[in-house]
Amino acid sequence: MGVPHAGLCRNALYSLGILAVIAAITMGLPALDRALPRDRAVPLGVAYPVTDTVTVIPPPGALLDVSQTRPGRDSGRAVFLVGRVRFAILVSADRLTLDAAADRLRTRLRDGLGASAIATDEPAPAGARAGRFRAGPDHGWYAVRVFDATTVVDATASGPPGELTTVLPALRAAAASIARTA
């Protein structure tokens, strides 16, 4: 006995249908992703939730980089663009002292970007550490805060030196606005 011819044809058609769906997803989703805008305007003066419990008020004129932003429950990341300056907020659930968190961020900047510290004693909001760095042609600024010894918030900004200097007061204000809501 053999396999009925009608069954083979039906299975072949179903298989081709599944293959067509997979091909549509494989080609369609990347095309859709490219078609969506990478940056999104954020409302002026409205707190943006980086995690369920940590918010930041973005600097005026900032655009949210949706391709790099990953909000989360206990840890998350928000990336804003102010002109050509990139302002990133990274929240992690770690048990660190403020000094240990600042050392960790400086190490990440050095190892990840090849950054060198320029100053480690920049003005910072109460309960924070801040400094400046240089990574290739760009200059940068960072601030670290620790909430309740369980939540570490790293804020970094980098971009062309002239633009960074211009927007740095707004970035410092945004970093000072970082708050724990619960």
Can you walk me through this structure?
Keywords: Membrane, Transmembrane, Transmembrane helix. The chain crosses the membrane at residues 12-32. By secondary structure, this protein is an alpha+beta fold. It folds into 2 domains: 1-36; 39-180, 3-Layer(aba) Sandwich (Protein Transport Mog1p, Chain A). It is built from 3 helices and 11 strands, in the order H-E-E-E-E-E-E-H-E-E-E-E-H-E. Strand 7 (116-119) and strand 8 (128-135) form a beta hairpin. The N and C termini lie far apart (71 Å). The mean pLDDT is 89.
Give the gist of this structure.
With 182 residues, the chain is an alpha+beta fold. The chain is built from 3 helices and 11 strands. The chain starts with a helix and ends with a strand.
The strand order across the widest sheet is 1-4-5-6-10-9-8-7
How many domains is the backbone divided into? 2
Helix/strand class: alpha+beta
Give the H and E element order: HEEEEEEHEEEEHE
Could you give the distance between the termini? 71 Å
Per CATH, the superfamily of the largest domain is: Mog1/PsbP, alpha/beta/alpha sandwich
Enumerate how many helices there are, as a single number: 3
Number of strands: 11
Helicity, in percent?
Answer: 25-40%
Report the sheet-strand fraction: 25-35%
Mean pLDDT metric: 89
Largest sheet: 8 strands, antiparallel
Coarse morphology:
elongated
The CATH architecture name of the largest domain reads 3-Layer(aba) Sandwich
